[in-house]
Design a protein that fits this description.
Blueprint: E1 2-6, E2 11-15, E3 24-31, H1 40-49, E4 62-66, H2 75-86, E5 93-94, E6 107-108, H3 113-117, H4 135-138, E7 173-177, H5 186-190, E8 196-198, E9 205-207, H6 217-221, E10 227-230, E11 235-238, H7 243-246, H8 261-264, E12 271-277, H9 291-298, E13 303-304, E14 315-318, H10 325-332, H11 336-344, H12 348-353, E15 366-370, E16 374-380, E17 383-388, E18 391-395, E19 401-406
Parallel strand pairs: 3-14
Antiparallel strand pairs: 1-2, 3-12, 4-7, 5-6, 8-9, 10-11, 13-14, 15-18, 16-17, 18-19
Length: about 425
């Protein structure tokens, strides 16, 4: 094992290989507050990549209803239970002040999936704590969709007091997922054939199927269960981040880096994907007006999914406002409370950046804000609110304008003679 630095955990951690980082990293932000579980992303991916024989059970992109749903079933609860068994009562955080870029969420005091494996009596090939889902667990990817949580400890009953913020007593939310293309992939660490690698140009994690022998160590190791075994070819497959689009070689891209199929199909406008610059130590290089850098490191409203696993995922989520905080903290770490507070009462810049989601299929490398007039002044939850109709401009890799949009969307009134037409 080697020591690598995981900035999401705020400390060094054990990993089977020496640290090596790409020049830039594929990353994305999902705004859960907007997801309506329409499954447009799911079907866009399915119809592009996993429609063939032997891939019937494969959903590289999926949307599951939390807290009960999961694909495969209970993947997160089982992964968390394995870590708890390896380190009983020790999976805790020491919260920081949020000012240290090397530990923005504080310090994780527990054991990652790599460190937990060091203390277990397992074969040397099992470098990562994990499990192989059963065939039944891969079935029914939409199981328990829209099933809400009622009073604690009471089955089949909803809370009689209804719902109100800051947290609902009866609740559920949709969690959209793809491969996180982690900085320290568990699948890569576990593969005895070294058939899995990160592309140096963008950090996308791929499986070299010519080298894969179908041992399924990757399936067992990935705590997010985003590597899948194909029985008729006897090799593993996974999300490839639509890399021809990301590198700008897809005919539709016009030579410019482009968002993936699942991103482009999102009608709820919950998604933003991009490429972030990295320092030599793997930390994000300061890029103040890259929208992903802003959301993760400046506004700090976007948080990694289960950072305690230790893989340093490059998928980030704006947590849902209405969900009880303890559930969200175990899912996104100790930055949840501050992130929801900032999102619920966004400042002028954050409100503008949130308008960038899904306005174009091209990757946004930089944004610029042109100030507009004041359009509203009032209070929200006892705090002053002032809104300005600013214009935000998005630029591509070559610093050419992609689009511009305002905070206030235009209102179009249908003429009276067409009021009831479709």
């Amino acid at each position: 094992m080697s020591d690598v630095y995981n900035w999401q955990l705020g400390r060094p951690m054990s990993y089977p290989y020496e640290a090596a980082y790409p020049r830039q990293q594929f990353a994305f932000v999902f705004n859960i507050n907007r997801c309506i579980a329409c499954q447009s992303c799911t079907m866009a991916c399915k119809s592009t990549w996993t429609f063939s024989k032997g891939q019937e059970h494969m959903w590289w992109a999926n949307v599951e209803t939390k807290p009960y749903g999961g694909y495969p079933h209970n993947w997160d609860a089982k992964a968390l239970q394995l870590l708890e068994e390896a380190n009983p009562g020790g999976q805790t955080w020491t919260k920081g002040d949020g000012k240290d870029p090397g530990a923005p969420y504080g310090k994780f005091d527990g054991k990652t999936v790599f460190e937990a494996a060091e203390n277990l009596l397992v074969p040397d090939s099992s470098r990562v704590v994990g499990y192989l889902p059963t065939d039944e667990e891969w079935n029914s990817p939409n199981i328990w969709e829209d099933n809400p949580v009622g009073p604690r400890g009471v089955r089949n009953e909803l809370d009689k007091e209804g719902v109100q913020l800051p947290t609902h007593k009866t609740w559920f939310f949709y969690l959209a997922r793809i491969c996180n293309h982690c900085s320290y992939p568990a699948c890569l660490a576990a593969c005895p054939r070294k058939a899995i690698y990160k592309r140096p140009e963008d950090g996308i994690v791929l499986v070299n199927q010519a080298d894969c022998r179908g041992y399924r160590k990757c399936v067992e190791a990935c705590p997010y269960k985003k590597v899948m075994y194909r029985g008729n070819t006897r090799v593993s497959e996974k999300c490839i981040a639509c890399y021809p689009r990301v590198e700008g070689t897809d005919p539709e891209s016009g030579g410019q880096p482009m968002e993936t199929r699942c991103m482009a199909a999102c009608i709820g406008q919950i998604r933003m994907q991009g490429l972030v610059k990295l320092k030599e130590n793997g930390a994000w290089a300061e890029d103040r007006y890259n929208p992903l850098y802003y959301l993760v490191h400046v506004a700090k409203v976007a948080l990694p999914l289960y950072p305690q696993f230790g893989t340093q995922p490059n998928g980030y989520y704006i947590p849902p406002r209405w969900v009880p905080r303890p559930y969200l903290r175990q899912m996104f770490g100790p930055g949840v409370d501050a992130a929801i507070e900032r999102y619920s009462l966004p400042d002028r810049e954050l409100l503008a950046v949130l308008q960038l989601f899904r306005r174009s299929n091209l990757i946004i490398f930089r944004y610029e804000i042109k100030e507009g007039p004041k359009v509203y002044e009032g209070t929200l939850n006892g705090k002053a609110v002032t809104l300005y109709n600013d214009t935000i401009i998005a630029y591509n890799r070559d610093s050419k304008e992609i689009f511009r949009t305002t905070i206030e969307e235009p209102v179009h009134v249908r003429p009276a003679q067409h009021a009831n037409s479709i």
